[in-house]
């Protein structure tokens, strides 16, 4: 491998991006995923099975997350009008306010980050990520 590439990969590894992501505990990531998924699909009837499929976790993990969110008053479950065996998950008004606050806070952090590194470097970063996504979406990633 080219030594310049090796150096860059080492620098990327040293940046410890995964450490930053891991600071958000698994419980919170799961809850935020579900809240974001429900928020993005407000007009759809989302079932626990939809969340399990999208998130790629067990139905037991989904049930645990839903129970936690329901205890916090952020979601509610109602039987489907079309199929009484299914439950439809919706955000409560508290859940909507909570996710709106989280989205706003995330935007503030991102704006601060952009100001910190500069718009031109951030634009370059976005361009690179788009190119990487484009390339990786055409690759066979069975390593």
Give a brief description.
The protein is mainly alpha-helical and 143 residues long. Helices cover 69% and strands 7% of the residues.
Distance between the termini: 18 Å
Report on the biggest sheet: 2 strands, antiparallel
> What is the radius of gyration?
19 Å
Strand percentage, roughly? 5-15%
Can you offer a commentary on this structure?
It is a single chain. The longest helix is centred in the last third of the chain and has 25 residues, at 93-117. A hairpin with a 7-residue loop joins strand 1 and strand 2 (87-91). The protein is 69% helix and 7% strand. The chain has helices spanning 3-14, 17-22, 26-40, 48-55, 59-71, 93-117, 119-137, and strands spanning 75-79, 87-91. By secondary structure, the chain is mainly α. A two-stranded antiparallel sheet has the order 1-2. The protein is built from 7 helices and 2 strands. Helix 3 crosses helix 5 (59-71) and helix 4 (48-55) packs across helix 5 (59-71).
Pick out its properties.
143 residues; mainly alpha; two-stranded antiparallel ribbon; 7 helices; 2 strands
SSE order and pairing:
Layout (H helix, E strand, L loop, with lengths): L2 H12 L2 H6 L3 H15 L7 H8 L3 H13 L3 E5 L7 E5 L1 H25 L1 H19 L6
Antiparallel strand pairs: 1-2
Helix pairs in contact: 3-5, 4-5
């Amino acid at each position: 491998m080219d030594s310049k590439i090796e150096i860059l990969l080492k620098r990327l590894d040293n940046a410890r991006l995964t450490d930053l992501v891991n600071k958000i505990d698994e419980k919170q990531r799961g809850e935020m995923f579900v809240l974001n998924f429900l928020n993005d699909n407000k007009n759809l009837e989302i079932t626990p099975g939809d969340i399990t499929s999208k998130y790629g976790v067990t139905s037991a993990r989904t049930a645990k997350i839903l129970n936690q969110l329901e205890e916090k008053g952020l979601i509610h479950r109602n039987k489907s009008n079309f199929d009484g065996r299914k439950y439809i998950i919706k955000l409560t008004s508290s859940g909507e306010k909570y996710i709106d606050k989280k989205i706003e806070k995330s935007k503030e952090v991102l704006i601060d980050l952009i100001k910190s590194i500069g718009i031109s470097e951030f634009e370059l970063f976005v361009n690179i990520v788009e190119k990487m996504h484009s390339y990786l979406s055409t690759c066979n990633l069975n390593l």
